[in-house]
Amino acid sequence: MTILGRSALGTVIVAAALALVGLGVRHATALPPASELASHRAIYELKLAQTRGNSAVAARGRILYDFSGNACEGYALQFRQVSELDNGEGKVTLSDLRSTTWEDGAAKKFIFKSQNYLNETLLDSVDGEAERQRDKVAVTLNQPAAKTFDLEVGMVFPTDHMRRIIAAAREGKNILELPVYDGSEKGEKVYDTVSFIGPRRPPGSNQRLPQVKNTEQLDQLAAWPVSIGYFEPGSDRKDATPVYELSFLFFENGVSRKLFIDYGEFAINGVLKEIVFHPPSKCEQK
């Protein structure tokens, strides 16, 4: 996730799910095994946080983020972000980004599809897959045009990126640098990312945030403040300004709150409005 706006993943990070009724009393849980991420479905409300310079912009919108799966079945994501931007001169633009992805548990294969609408007109569609091989990551695009190309073997996919951030946080690391590929921007975009991980916050951080139904399931989980900068590949990150920066409070099961997206000229807050957790699926490691 490389998530929100210029990239279709970043995909990473909010949470929620459908409450299940019937089928007996099978309760969902927010705390999967230590190596797993919680399956979830969430709705975030987006609001303008601040503008800079002469930027006169109003922004609002919503994100729907539905994540499910596990290490042996793979991870599926359905994502939709609808945003309304006002340039301050009476011009309002409605953006609608929709994407679905699947990533296998070993981070060897990544399948992605997305559609990008502007003022209800389809601008572009992306359809492709990437497969990790011994010495490279091979990408095959079907849309917007048939194409194949290779990426460096160290490239990581979105869910794997999330898992690596959590692993680094648990090990007490405060910086993680990785190139990320999520199939965004016509399927050819790669970002160099730098993740800054703050000090561990013990269970209880969620209780100090606005209460949303089902978030009490996060009360017993540790969390870390995380900020990820997304840079153009090959840029000198000591002097370069990130294309955008994403900050959030990251719980150890992969759920995030206090979302803040900084695009340079303006920044957006993402406030969790709804969240429920999917029941964990069975995963039998071979």
- Biggest sheet, strands in spatial order? 8-7-6-5-4-3-2-1-14-13-12-11-10-9
Helix-strand pattern, N to C? EEEEEEEEHEEEEEE
| Broad shape | globular
Number of helices: 1
Percent helix among the residues?
under 10%
Task: Please tell me the overall pLDDT.
Answer: 84
Sheet with most strands? 14 strands, antiparallel
Report the end-to-end length measured between terminal Cα atoms: 29 Å
Measured by DSSP, the beta-strand proportion falls in: over 45%
Which structural class do you get from the secondary structure elements?
mainly beta
Poorly predicted ranges: 1-34
Oligomer: single chain
- Computed Rg: 18 Å
Annotation, overall tally of beta strands:
14
Account of the 3D structure:
With 286 residues, the protein is mostly beta strands. Helices cover 5% and strands 47% of the residues. It has one helix and 14 strands, in the order E-E-E-E-E-E-E-E-H-E-E-E-E-E-E. The protein has one helix at residues 158-170; strands spanning 40-51, 58-70, 74-86, 92-103, 109-118, 121-132, 137-143, 147-151, 175-181, 190-197, 223-231, 244-251, 256-262, 266-277. It has a 14-stranded antiparallel β-sheet with strand order 8-7-6-5-4-3-2-1-14-13-12-11-10-9, covered by helices on one side. The protein starts with 39 loop residues before the first strand and ends in a 9-residue tail after the last strand. The model is unreliable at 1-34 (pLDDT under 50).
Features:
286 residues; disordered N terminus; mainly beta
Topology of helices and strands:
Blueprint: E1 40-51, E2 58-70, E3 74-86, E4 92-103, E5 109-118, E6 121-132, E7 137-143, E8 147-151, H1 158-170, E9 175-181, E10 190-197, E11 223-231, E12 244-251, E13 256-262, E14 266-277
Antiparallel strand pairs: 1-2, 1-14, 2-3, 3-4, 4-5, 5-6, 6-7, 7-8, 9-10, 10-11, 11-12, 12-13, 13-14
